[in-house]
Structure formats: structure tokens, C-alpha cells
Amino acid sequence: MFQSFDTVNDKSRGPVRLAALREELASRGLDGFLVPRADAHQGEYVPDSDCRLEWLTGFTGSAGIAGVLSDKAAIFIDGRYTIQVRDQVDEEAFAYRHLIDEPLTDWLRENAQEGQKIGYDPMLHPVRQVRSLKAACKKAGAELVAVDGNPVDAVWNDRPAAPLGAVNMHPMQFAGESAADKIKRIGELIAEKEADTALLTQPDSIAWLLNIRGSDVMHTPLPLSFALVPTKGKPSLFIDGRKLSNEVRDELSSLADIDEPGGLAPALKALGTDGKRVLIDTGLAGQALYDAVADNGGHVVEGQEPTLLPKAIKNQAEIEGTKAAHLRDGVAYARFLAWFEKTAPLGGLTEVVVAEKLEEFRRETGALKDISFDTISAAGPHGAICHYRVSYDSNLPIELNSVYLIDSGAQYEDGTTDITRTLAVGAVTAEQCKHFTLVLKGHIAIATARFPVGTTGSQLDTLARIDLWKQGLDFDHGTGHGVGSYLGVHEGPQRIAKAPNSIVLKPGMILSNEPGYYRADEYGIRIENLELVTPAAAIEGGDQKMLGFEPLTLAPIDLRMVDTKLLSEFELNWLNAYHARVRELVGPLLDDETKAWLEEATRPVS
């Protein structure tokens, strides 16, 4: 299994570990310390050796930070984790705060004392974050100070070793553009920013640029590394050489100068000493890397990593690859759904069993490299926990007459998938069908949107929520995230969310479309497809160039939960057309029994 169901946290350890950390802080003359859920690359997945927040608090979510003072501590999480944090973190040790509504900066202003020194690890906090934290501490009369050596590591006696996943070259048939051409293209973008060199801290940016993949973190084929890319000439790649076979090293050496990670700081200092202009993304790069340039006489050009937008706009080979991956995944998913509909009402299934079975169907494609994230297999009340992680301890049975939510994805060498379906097990209530249909209306609104060139995802977000809002309902997560090409299942810079986003949507971008509704302690509903941004046909009488979405995901939406009376004729037509497309593409690749099931599951409704 690519997924473990072992319980990885024990909230009872939090107070003991917090006490040990405070003792270490006191020995260093520090009055507090900040512990982010981050490594030096700010990635969604961090290696076990960098799971400091999880080790200290027990929290396993993908976003969060803890603030520790000598007499109090708090953990800050977003709306996806408001239920999960209560299950995983000792409230007596850490107060619960909302990352957005009750941010760490407010907490520091309220709780830090005059003259106190609050420590932070300058490799783990991006420059932009450090600036706001410093301002908050200053307002309280305290000082935010960089530490040399993370104090959590000093008390983490059984800290795992750093990963050494093997690096592989990503074939041209899937990459669609040579690394040499990408390097030249990115160099030109750096020059446009009037910089000499760009610092890349995101491993997926480096993987895309050099056409390499790795296995240093869960579910995303990343080689942890840094890079410096000049306007002309070879980039410098800073990576643990033990990850490179002789063959890979030879091929990479033709593209980049290879050095160990410890060579990055001296290289940045040398650029500073030479007075070079270095492009640094202050929302991603650690403060220590910025300081290595600025404190040695260099000039930092602040701007987005130059690879982010080119990586987000998929080329034709990547688009063809992701379509092939989604068709393959659609066949596996149809087999899974047919099995689930037949088996679940009989009893005996659990969240773990279902997650294992779905992975089994994907493995049987013969092409599965990994799952793209831990499957969210959520029965009944667990469905209300947006990012629920099933374990053997939390494992619930799939009960008759209930709602079941499963959010999952796969990593294939030609593409990355991500799909959520909410399924009826036996009879469901009229209220559950109403909520499901309201979510479906939001999903259809995004799927059918036509929008002018220059539109951002935040301008579309309301479409997914308006029917929920009319009923006094909402969901506390983004509507859509970008998706990589055999890279991260959550990939920026584009997204669809309430928060303002200046990134305009462009043809070739892939985003998820996943509105939801969650009733605490009862059930959760989410419907998710991946969508490809495409040019749209001109609208008669219009004068704007328009864009739209093409669905990539190919799987039935559970008609047993659709209240057709709540759908307009336009929405019914979309649902029937989507299901007809699933039948047309997936049906011929199924065995007779599953094909018959699919015909029924995608029947036209009115």
C-alpha cells in the first residue's frame, strides 16, 4: 500500500514535548519559539525529518504553525482542520486558533511581553512571513530573533534521517519540452526582471525545469533540492549526490553544475559579494537565503519564482498525457464504483477496506506510480472533516442508509489525478439530497463558466457558492487548486478561492472544481473534477475573447443523491452530457458487467 493507516499522532505526548522544548529555549535565552508545518522548501508534503509541528503537537494537517511562549502556547490551523485539531492536539497544552481569522501575528501582539526574545528558524519561514512576524513582535515590545540550529531538533531524540530518494529523468514524451529549452526560456524571463540569477527553492519547479523526478516525499515525485538559474549558461543544482546514479549524474551534468546542498549558502554569499541581482520569491524562500545575498552586498529582486507560471501552463504533450491518465483512472474508478455499489449495502466494509480496494483497482492498471495524496475515506460524520485521515484507530464501518465521501487521486507518469465523489449507501434523506444538489449546482456553475481572457480564479469563486449562500450555507475551503503533470496534486500559482489571487487563468492550466458542504458530526459532501482551461467559442453578439473549462475527470456523479427538481434545464443538460461523455470514453474499456453498471449509473435524468 502507498498509504499507511497506522496512528501517527498521540496527543498525550504534546505536554511532555512542549515542556522539553521550553527547557531548551530557556537554556538559549529565548522566551518563545515558532514551529511551522514546513521544511526549507515550503512544500505541501515534508519529509519525516522535518515534521516538527507534528512531533511537537500531534497535528498531522498540511497547514499550520505553533507559537510557544514560556507560559502559553497556541496552534494555528485553517478551516479544513478545525475538527481534526481537536482530535489530535491537547487543548490544555495548545490553544486552538484559526490561521486566518485569529492569526499568529495577532496572538504575538496580544501575548508577547516587553523585552522578550522570540526565536525562529530562518530556513523555515519565508521572507514575507518573517516581516509580518517581526512587526507583530515589535508592536508588543518583543524581538523576533533567528536561531542557529533548530531547538526542536535538539530535543527530538529519535528524529528520522533526511530522505535519499533516487532521482530519475522524466521522459521527453511526457515532458513535451527539453530541459535545455526550458532553461533558455526561464533565463529570458529572469532577464526581463532585470536580475542576473534566480533562486529556486521549490523542488517541483526544479523537477519541471530539469525534467527530473524523485521520491523524497510522500505521494509527489520530488527530489528535494535548490537551484540557481542565471540568465545565460548552466544552472547550479544543489542536491545530495547520493540520490544520483552515475547515469543520471552524467545526463544532469550536461544541463547543470551539481553541488551538495551545503554549497547553496556560499554560492548566494558569493553572488552578494559580486554585487549580483538575485531574483528571490519572498513568499517561498527562507529568510536565511535572502540574508545570504542581501547581507553580503547583493541586490535582491523580489518576485515570483520564474518557473511557476510556465509550469502551470501545460504543453500539448502534458495535456495529452493527463487526458490519457484520466481515462485510465476513469476505468479503474468505474470498476471501484460498481464494486462499492454492489458491496457496501451488504455490510462489512470499513473506511480502510474501501481505501485499500480503490488503490487495488488503480494498481491493476499496471501504470500506478503512487497515489497523489492519502485517500480521504470518510464514512458518515467523518465526511464533515474536510481533510480527514483514516487510521486503524479511527476506522468506521460503512453503514447502511448513510453518506460516504471519498477523495482520492493517482500519480501516473503521464499525469496526476484528483477526484472526489459522495456516495449514497442505501437510502439517504431528502435534506442530504438537497445539500448534495446545491453542491452539484455550484460544480456545474464552475464547469460551464465562460469568462473573458484576464479573469482570475477568485473572480469565479462565487459561482460555486451562490446556491449554497441562498440557503445560508457555505464551505470553508477553496473551490479549486492547480494540479501538476506527474508533480504536485496541489500546484500554484492559479487557484479558485475567496481570497484575492492576481494570477489570471490561461489555456493549458489545470484546476480542480470541488465545492462542498459539511454538517459537523453528521456528514460531508464534495464533488470534484479536474478541469482544463481552454479557449471557448465566441459568444454571439459578444466582443470579448472567452475561455472555459473542459472536464478531465471521467466518473459518474451519484444520481441517487440528485434532487432533479432543484436543477434547471441547463444544469440537467450538463449532467446528462457529462455522463454521456463518461459512457462514450470509459464504457468501451470495461468488462460487460461493469459496462452495464455504468450504463445505469449514467442514465439520462429529467
UniProtKB/TrEMBL annotation:
Location of the Peptidase M24 domain: 322-534
A GO term for molecular function: metalloaminopeptidase activity
Claim: Oxidoreductase is one of the keywords in the record: no
Keywords, alphabetical: Aminopeptidase, Hydrolase, Metal-binding, Protease
Keyword Transport part of the UniProt annotation: no
Peptidase M24 C-terminal domain sequence ranges: 545-605
Record-linked InterPro entries: Creatin/AminoP/Spt16_N, Creatinase/aminopeptidase-like, Creatinase_N, Pept_M24, Pept_M24B, Peptidase_M24_C, X-Pro_aminopeptidase_P
Family the UniProt entry places it in: Belongs to the peptidase M24B family.
Protein's UniProt name: Xaa-Pro aminopeptidase
The organism of origin for this protein: Pseudovibrio denitrificans
